[in-house]
Amino acid sequence: MSPLEQMRQCVAQHGRDGADAWLSQALDMIDPNALGGVRVSLARCARKVGDAAVSSATFPGWTARDAARGALVLRAFELSDGAADAYGQWLRRGEQGEQESLLRVLPWLPRPAQVLQHAVEACRTNSEVVFRAAALHNPFPAEHFPDLNFNQMVLKALFLGVPVGEIEGLRGRITHELLRMADDYATERRAAGRSVPDDIGLLHNLFGETES
What we know:
The protein is mainly alpha-helical. The protein is built from 12 helices and no strands.
């Protein structure tokens, strides 16, 4: 079963009454030459589909509306080469819940290089909710971010106080440079009389395990 079909199945199982029929119609109405209509459907998912939790090991932490939005985005990418540009617009203009859904679907998008910069920019947000969707339990950053951008994302996680250990693929991306950046951050906090995040120690421990 394709990722799109798995997402549709999640909507059928966990969405509100009529959610599956609504999503089918919305998918059929996508015009590859006018993707602006997808933006409308993305916004309607909260009301039409709902936010019931999805019980799926493939989509951990997702809700039914995440699955619906994911299906819409995947179909748009199947139909149009211009979907990556449209994706960036949907991400910038969407409300927080829409941004979460759009970032969660990143690992399943067929042309990751075309959306890489959008993902990098999302990890610079000051919204913890949006940052978590981009950085935690999401394999996209570890698989596609250049070292500098990945390191900056980890530092942002330390700054926001979100659990660094929930960054998927972290162990394989820890470098001496990342540890240096984290230690510099710790030094700055000590100098300012602030506490040092415990997760800096976690980074060192994980790196030591990979080196042994």
